[in-house]
Design a protein that fits this description.
heterodimer; A: alpha+beta; Aldehyde Oxidoreductase, domain 4; 5-stranded mixed beta sheet; 16 helices; globular; B: alpha+beta; Uridine Diphospho-n-acetylenolpyruvylglucosamine Reductase, domain 2; Enolase-like, domain 1; 3 domains; 5-stranded antiparallel beta sheet; 4-stranded antiparallel beta sheet; 16 strands; binds flavin-adenine dinucleotide
Chain lengths: 703, 289
């Protein structure tokens, strides 16, 4: 480990290149999935089930078919048959079975989006309704142990005898925390324009986080060769994980285009997004921490209960964070899952770490109080020397440096730990802290790099920019690796015919793509060097593949770290919570572009703030539905809720990561935020809220 | 689906267009109506757009009263001379939606929608507003407390247009407080308007989101009205007991419900807190310059 810990200042942000596609985006020249001009195009709109479980007995499309502008109504009775894939949610209109409320049971194609919607309203569906079961309960009799948790972690882990260690511990904390269903709502909904060529090829403009995999799945579903499927995702308006795999929109658009023989556009409505694009499972988490009176952990047990659908087992890796964040000689993590009549949960920014950190980092705060210790100090005392479960050394681990630097900048030293005693007029004031962490991973990717006789370098790989700034950062990486100014680099991404690459997900887009580019640049420069710099008329080209580098076993545990500090003000009479200040200090390896990096971290923290105070999918037990399935009812933080959110990072050199030296920053910002807020609320009011979101009535109802 | 839009350039054109059929419906800012359309609760038939009808726009003084055109937008309510004349309305307007909604949404739309969470309604209720209506049979007036009949139900009849809302121009402080589950773009959990009439020696309170319709709290009003020193426009309440008692009495006048936004118990408590705060602010010493 050779980490130099020096905070990076704001001038780095100011000096960073601005987005290469910024002008195109603000002028509207950048085209999104349903904006590409296509001749003779029509629109589709899904009809979704209004019962949570049962069978469709009849679909009466006569009125819909008679609606002006309606071209076709697809149902399980007449829709094209699909091939098998491992995502049961994509077997659309293949059977009469209803597995959850809001599942697609018909699709209306119309000349305009309005006529398609009007047609969809006119479709009458009858059901043979069965009794549904939509409520997560830790004691649910159908709880089972999933084979693994997302994306491939062991379900349970155990070291030593945590029960005995807990039983004999001087200080014991046993608390249960819950997080609600949370939904992804990227600005651009899941959207596709699909057209079939006369030669049977399928062209798809689609909003996704990686079209290499999308093309493969579409080929399997429609019985095509992968090379007959062309997916173009030039600009994508956000995803947060929900566009990491193909979603119903692309399959339905392709089916509809096949059925009507014309290109079809389909952009899901906001309300569809509450059931059709995955969401974060609600979680129930029990934390047992046993410690010495000095706050040194002797036992750490994190048990999780969560839900999946009857279609597919998706198990969020909620307790995985407790496997590596703190030292404890005896420890255990478990995950239990129940299949309910609900849509299949899926990835949402920092799956696992986001809800898991709320429980673990709230519990650590409770333990600090029980041991009469400063919460920063408690964390420092439980800093492990090596990864507690694998025994591997950390490639770099600057959690303590982040905590200390954050404490210094935030003004933590003067903090009086007594809860509920600081008052400013009607406001109770408090501060809280939590740790952040996220795995630093890299996945195999390829990049094709060529140099022309004019000296311009063209970089081609199927990366994608979902609004994060990756197009800008990759251009910088390529320019640096080629030792050229950025205006001598042409970057092509977002097209499935380009060399295959990792998705924009798991915080490993940039590290994976960047590594392929760095490797390609080395190969290209070597090639140019061998010719003494003479570049032939038709240029030189290489294709780099990082599969080998990625496969090479690492002797290190690789994670990014951070610390978040939060100030809250709680209205003593109404319980309204305001967050005037949120500061994150991170250690994330090398930062390529300070401007876009800061934006990712601040964005993650803002989403964490939203998770702390607002986001809550309310289950309609009677109808098996979400009570709040629009953005009027499902609240995310508004501008007025977000005051001073700031993020900075420590300079960190880590040679054991990848060819770029970066750890990935897409997700760590949301990890720990909700706990920092809840801990600050406790400090302000003396009320410990263990159930998210921190609603006013929850604050006043107890205390 | 087929529909048409008539852009009425006068009140008469609007009334004529409404006669075209039973499915004809007025649209002002469209910020409530389009939500209904998007949710599939209403299929647009004939729409009569009234935002270009000059009779419904703006506001003017009429003796001791202020005539607020039904087409008055929140953006117009929140500033200028009108904000000085009816400050509680301006405060309420500032809490509505986002700038886009405040530029489009209108007072008439808020009143006719008659949602328990309509933000102008507690203010208008405290002011004893009167709704002016034009219809096939001529014009009529309807006091707001009679006009709003229940959750999203009004006394408006087929073919009628709300032309204006009349409120008194009062001397005295006005306050509007709202509690929501976030800081903007929020459906109110509760709101309270307090209006002081220094000449009539009354304190009036309107409460929203705490009953099917906006409510007044006569007992609370009488209680506090009797304790105000009307000469000095001050309320002697060094310990805050009077304000607290006022808040309790206001809360007793409500009948809130539990829903996914909040609980009845919380709503009752928040009403008491907001009412107490509002009355304290209304009578606090003017800040020394
Ligand atoms: C994002 C969003 C946020 C919002 N936030 C708030 C908020 O914070 N507080 C709040 O109170 N409301 C809020 N609303 C609701 C809405 O903006 C208000 O109720 C607004 O005042 C409606 O006015 P409008 O002109 O848009 O009405 P429209 O939608 O045009 O009309 C509403 C109804 O009134 C009828 N109508 C309109 N004008 C007349 C008239 N002159 N005579 C007779 N009938 C008429 C229409 O036929 C229709 O039935 C919000 C809405 C949205 C979409």
């Amino acid at each position: 480990m050779n980490d130099v810990v020096r905070p990076v200042m704001q001038d780095a942000v100011a000096a960073a290149p601005t987005r290469v596609d910024g002008r195109d985006k603000v002028t509207g020249r950048a085209r999104y999935a349903v904006e590409h001009p296509v001749e003779d195009v029509v629109w589709a709109w899904p009809v979704t089930s209004t019962v949570a479980k049962g069978r469709v007995t009849e679909i009466d499309a006569s009125e819909a078919n008679g609606t002006e502008g309606v071209i076709a109504v697809l149902t399980h009775a007449n829709a094209p048959r699909l091939g098998e894939t491992d995502d049961a949610e994509l077997q659309l209109l293949q059977s009469d079975r209803v597995a959850y409320r809001g599942q697609v049971c018909a699709l209306v194609v119309g000349e305009t989006v309005e006529s398609a919607r009007a047609g969809a309203d006119a479709v009458r569906v009858r059901y043979d309704e069965a009794e549904h079961d939509v409520v997560l309960d830790a004691r649910h009799p159908a709880m089972f142990t999933p084979e693994k948790v997302n994306p491939g972690f062991p379900t349970d882990t155990s070291i030593g005898d945590p029960d005995t260690a807990f039983a004999v511990a001087a200080v014991q904390l046993d608390a249960t925390y819950t997080t609600p269903t949370e939904h992804n709502h990227a600005m651009e909904p899941h959207a596709t324009t699909a057209s079939w060529g006369a030669d049977g090829t399928l062209t798809l403009y689609d909003s996704n986080q990686g079209s290499t995999g999308v093309a493969r799945v579409m080929a399997d579903l429609f019985g095509l060769q992968v090379r007959a499927v062309h997916v173009i995702s030039e600009h994508v308006g956000g995803g947060f994980g929900s566009k990491g795999t193909p979603r119903p929109n692309i399959v339905l658009a392709a089916m509809a285009a096949q059925a009507v023989g014309r290109p079809v556009r389909l952009a899901l409505g906001r309300q569809h997004m509450f059931s059709l694009v995955g969401y974060r499972t609600p979680t129930i988490q029990r934390l047992r921490l046993g410690a010495t009176t000095d706050g040194v952990l002797r036992s750490l047990v994190h048990d999780v209960w969560e839900q999946t659908s009857t279609l597919d087992d998706f198990a969020e890796q909620t307790a995985v964070i407790s496997r590596m964040l703190y030292a404890a000689p005896a420890r255990r993590t478990t995950h239990r899952l129940v299949r309910l009549d609900v849509p299949t949960p899926s990835w949402m920014r920092a799956p696992g770490e986001a809800p898991g950190s709320f429980a673990l980092e709230s519990a650590m705060d409770e333990l600090a109080a029980a041991c009469d210790l400063d919460p920063v100090e408690l964390r420092v005392r439980n800093e492990p020397d090596v990864d507690p479960e694998s025994g591997k050394p950390f490639s770099s681990r600057n959690l303590v440096a982040c905590l200390r630097e954050g404490a210094r900048r935030f003004g933590w030293e003067q903090r009086d730990p007594t809860p509920g005693v600081r008052r400013d007029g009607r406001w109770l004031v408090g501060t809280g802290v939590a740790s952040s962490t996220y795995p630093a991973r890299t996945a195999p990717s390829q990049a094709r790099m060529s140099i022309g006789s004019d000296g311009v370098v063209t970089v081609e790989l199927n990366a994608v920019d979902i609004g994060t700034g990756s197009r800008t950062a990759l251009t910088q990486i390529a320019a640096e690796a080629m030792d050229l100014p950025t205006d001598r680099v042409r970057l092509r991404i977002g097209d499935s015919t380009l060399p295959p690459a990792m998705i924009a997900g798991g915080s490993m887009g940039l590290t994976s793509w960047g590594s392929a580019i760095v490797k390609g640049a080395r190969q290209l420069r070597e090639l140019v060097g061998r010719r003494d710099g003479a570049i032939p008329e038709d240029g030189l080209e290489v294709t780099a593949d990082t599969a080998e580098e990625v496969r090479a076993v690492s002797g290190y545990a690789r994670h990014a770290f951070g610390a978040q500090f939060c100030e809250v003000r709680v209205d003593a009479d109404t319980g309204e919570v305001r967050v005037p200040r949120l500061l994150g200090v991170f250690a994330v390896g090398r930062v390529i572009n300070a401007r876009t990096a800061r934006s990712q971290l601040v964005g993650g923290m803002t989403m964490g703030l939203s998770m702390a105070l607002h986001e809550e999918g309310v289950v309609d037990v009677q109808h098996g539905d979400n009570v709040n399935h629009d953005l009027a009812g499902y609240h995310i933080a508004a501008h007025a809720d977000v005051a001073d959110v700031d993020a900075m990072w420590l300079e960190e050199h880590d040679e054991h990561l990848n060819l770029v030296g970066a750890k990935g920053i897409g997700e760590i910002g949301i990890v720990g935020t909700a706990a920092a807020v809840a801990n600050a609320v406790h400090h302000a009011t003396g009320v410990r809220v263990r159930d998210l979101p921190i609603r006013v009535d929850r604050l006043l109802g107890r205390g | 689906m087929s529909g048409s839009v008539t852009v009425a350039r006068s009140l008469d054109q609007a009334l004529d267009a409404l006669r075209s059929g039973p499915d004809a419906r007025l649209v002002a800012g469209g910020t409530d109506l389009m939500v209904e359309v998007n949710a599939g609760r209403w299929q647009p038939g004939t729409l009569v757009s009234v935002d270009r009808a000059p009779e419904l726009r703006g506001w003017h003084r009429d003796g001791d009263e202020i005539v607020l055109g039904s087409g008055l937008t929140y953006a117009e309510m929140e500033r200028g001379e009108l904000a000085r004349l009816v400050p509680a309305l301006a405060q309420a307007a500032r809490t509505v939606g986002s700038p886009q909604i405040r530029n489009a949404g209108t007072l008439g739309g808020n009143v006719v929608t008659a949602s328990p969470a309509g933000d102008t309604l507690p203010v208008l209720t405290a002011l004893d507003a009167v709704v002016q209506i034009a219809g096939p049979e001529g014009t009529r007036i309807s006091p707001l407390r009679e006009f709003v009949r229940g959750v999203k139900r009004t006394d408006l009849r087929a073919g009628e247009v709300v032309t204006a809302v009349r409120v008194p121009a009062l001397r005295g402080a006005q306050e509007f407080l709202k509690v929501g589950t976030r800081n903007a773009m929020v459906i109110s959990v509760v709101m309270v308007a307090v209006v002081v009439d220094l000449d009539g020696h009354t304190v009036r309170v309107g409460v929203g989101s705490a009953a099917p319709v906006p409510v007044r709290a006569p007992l609370a009003e009488e209680y506090v009205g009797a304790l105000v020193d009307w000469e000095r426009a001050r309320m002697d309440d060094p310990t805050g007991e009077v304000a607290a008692q006022f808040g309790e009495l206001v809360a007793q006048a409500t009948s809130p419900i539990d829903d996914h936004r909040s609980t009845a118990a919380y709503r009752r408590r928040a009403v008491a807190v907001c009412a107490a705060r509002a009355v304290r602010r209304a009578f606090q010493e003017p800040e020394s310059p």
